[in-house]
Amino acid sequence: MNHTMLAAIAESAQAKLVVHNIPRPVPGTGEVLIKVQAAAVNPLDTKIAAGQAGHARQPLPAILGMDLAGTVTELGDGVDGFAPGDEVFGMAGGIGGIQGTLAEYIVVDARLIAPKPRALSMREAAALPLVFITAWEGLVDRANVRTGQQVLIHGGAGGVGHAAVQLAKARGARVYATGSATSLDFIRELGATGIDYRAQTVEDYLKRYTGGEGFDIVYDTVGGATLNASFNAVKVYTGHVLSCLGWGQHSLAPLSFRGASYSGVFTLMPLLTGKGRQHHGMILREAAAMADAGQLKVNVDQRRFGLHDVNEAFRQVSEGLGQGKTVIEMDR
């Protein structure tokens, strides 16, 4: 039996990733060994490779990659609910000193994964975990999105944004989403009202869609000035602003004068701290149920990459050239 595997390794910051043959990991207690069939490339992966993402706590050299879809091949002690041959997906590594998904095999904490949605391909399933978990942690865990609410998603055509639009819609909200003029058709296909952020001011779309009252929930997936604008877009008292990129310096005055609330979303926490991992597995089960019910589509870029194309895939993501999530397939 072959006990080695190919893996893409970031040996130092700003250097090209190199594919090496290395020993295959062995699952410990509570872990499963997964044969990776597809792994997404997220913007955070490219930032780690460039040495720019200290918050991810991933010292180099390292195998990068956070999202995967694949097949369970071996169980460690104490694992229930999975068996060899099961198709699974999850956000499983690539930060906090943990091996990433850009390898033929990976050992994963079984709490972090869930059965792959039957309705999605391996490529589609691999593109889903990080963005869906981030959408869920904001809209459901923090804001309790529900029927009858008006929800504004900033960056509705992006990775987190397109998941958030579909999640809010599935839970009964009326959804609005900002984007560039070229993205509005896609936003409408997802079931949201598209808002061209270059053509309309916050005051314009607040008046048009909420009678000037503001939105119940505003989810910022862009950061910077967009988060500042979000503070002016929520309803007085009951409004709730969420952001997965609230890392800059922002004045809370507009939010405070509305008596409204703000929540930050930091999806990496369970991987970095070991706390709350079971919750990520639960969220992915919810994602699978939505996908299998026809309520969740995944926007995957049409270009096909194998592991040996990893640097071209990273370039596509870092330069924003893809149309949807970039995914690497191990058997190409």
From TrEMBL:
PROSITE patterns: QOR_ZETA_CRYSTAL (PS01162). The keyword Glycoprotein does not apply. SUPFAM superfamilies: GroES-like, NAD(P)-binding Rossmann-fold domains. Keywords: Oxidoreductase. InterPro entries: ADH-like_N (IPR013154), ER (IPR020843), GroES-like_sf (IPR011032), NAD(P)-bd_dom_sf (IPR036291), Quin_OxRdtase/zeta-crystal_CS (IPR002364), YIM1/Zinc_Alcohol_DH_Fams (IPR050700). The keyword NADP does not apply. CDD domains: MDR6. Coiled coil: none annotated. Residues 12-328 form the Enoyl reductase (ER) domain. This is Zinc-dependent alcohol dehydrogenase family protein.
